[in-house]
Write a structure and sequence with these properties.
Number of strands: 6
Number of domains: 2
Protein name: Glycosyltransferase RgtA/B/C/D-like domain-containing protein
Shape: elongated
Oligomer: single chain
Distance between the termini: 49 Å
Structural class: alpha+beta
Helix content: 55-70%
Radius of gyration: 26 Å
Keywords: Membrane, Transmembrane, Transmembrane helix
Length: about 260
Amino acid sequence: FILNFIYLYGLNLKLVIFLLVIVGMAIAWQHRQNCRVLMIYFIMSLALLMAYLGTKTLPFSFLINYERDNYAARILLVSVFFLAPFILITLYWLLAKIIKQNYFIKLAWLLFFAVLITASLYLSYPRFDRYFNSHGYSVSASDISAVQWIAENSSGDYIVLANQQVSAAAVRQYGFSHYYKNNIFYYPIPTGGPLYNYYLKMVYQKPSRQTMAEAMNLADVREGYFVLNKYWWAFDKILDKAKLEAQSWQEINQGQVYIFKY
């Protein structure tokens, strides 16, 4: 029940904010002689909204698919910030009404607001529950062990197809030490680079020898590694297929990370 309520609130949060803004605008209009300065905030928000709509038409083909809307989404979020004064007006108006009520009604409203604040706090954190997995993973000791093992066991120039956390571990340990043909970094960062697309093929399609060979040819190297973290979705399925295609494989930290050599 608790999670149902929290996510029902979360799903309708945009509607709640919209209603708070509309009510605040209506109140500000009624007192427009004293609220002229709020017109500046409204115009700024409207300008950013137009910028958001314009940005949605621009192609961001140099980014991976699920990151292409990030820039436009940030503009929309900033436009909402400029509407905060109208939300505050609504809350002030509502609190003024509540204060005039009897003790039990005020207590009920207090409990209601406490529940909403608690739900908002829960939704603001990375979560892994029955409804949502934030995938908010950070660099782990297993990631660092994996990049160290690869560096110690490689026999020449090589590339690694891995997620962003493993790539960050490599940069932390060894810096930007290897660049190959076409100015390709040996780990798949940034995510808009060509190697990351090959990594996505390995985890979302099939961890095939052919995909790794294409990535190796692009960078002009003879050795390639594919790194698979245990927390990745469809881990078991990808693991079994990768074992069939790879030349050899290595388990790190009791199976937290698997390394496949091609």
